[in-house]
């Protein structure tokens, strides 16, 4: 299959803590492609708007912030307004705020072109929630990762603990269920598999196995 426009794209969508970020980064490394962590853009918008005291329901103000973010991705570092915020944007409170502001159409529209601009030679692996359905509908390969909410909560707990954040399993389960409901029910770009996406349940699957599956699908699609 040939991409309709530009360089090849692999999209990896799925709910929070399904493993899409880790799988996407490893697939990008194997293929030698660029990587887009679309969730980071929403987290950056969440962080910047929180710093400015903008309410999570003020769609137009949030969109203005999203459109003018001064951001830079350097390796694993995420820089906002000249400061490294790689650790700060992974806080659970910022993730929850990012999910809340992502329901707004103006915010999603403001970030649309910024996400599309990551499509450069030799190719791109993009992870998020609407990469295959909205941002790159002509992607060469679309993958939708999922996992049970219990497996995802356990992964999220480990991620937060490893980064030095405190967390509670019951709270994480509640937050994930609420986030899933919000992401799938929103009227703009709801979380769902693209019609032509490969589905991959990672509940009891190692990262290595998931990466191998995606690489295999990609090579067979070329």
Automatic annotation (TrEMBL):
> What's a Pfam family in this record?
Cytidylate_kin
So what does this thing catalyse? CMP + ATP = CDP + ADP; dCMP + ATP = dCDP + ADP
Asked if the Swiss-Prot or TrEMBL record annotates the protein with the keyword ATP-binding, the reply is yes
Which enzyme type, at the first EC level? transferase
Q: Which residues belong to any copy of the Cytidylate kinase domain?
A: 10-216
Gene Ontology molecular function, alphabetical? kinase activity
Mind telling me which InterPro entries this protein's record contains?
A: Cytidylate_kin, Cytidylate_kinase_dom, P-loop_NTPase
Broad class of where this protein is predominantly found: cytoplasm
Source superkingdom: Bacteria
**What residues does ATP bind to?**
14-22
Where does this one sit in the cell?
Cytoplasm
**EC number(s) on record?**
2.7.4.25
Ordered alphabetically, the record's keywords are: ATP-binding, Cytoplasm, Kinase, Nucleotide-binding, Transferase
In the record, the note on similarity to other proteins reads: Belongs to the cytidylate kinase family. Type 1 subfamily.
Q: What is this protein called?
A: Cytidylate kinase
The uppermost taxa in this organism's lineage are: Bacteria, Pseudomonadati, Pseudomonadota, Betaproteobacteria, Burkholderiales
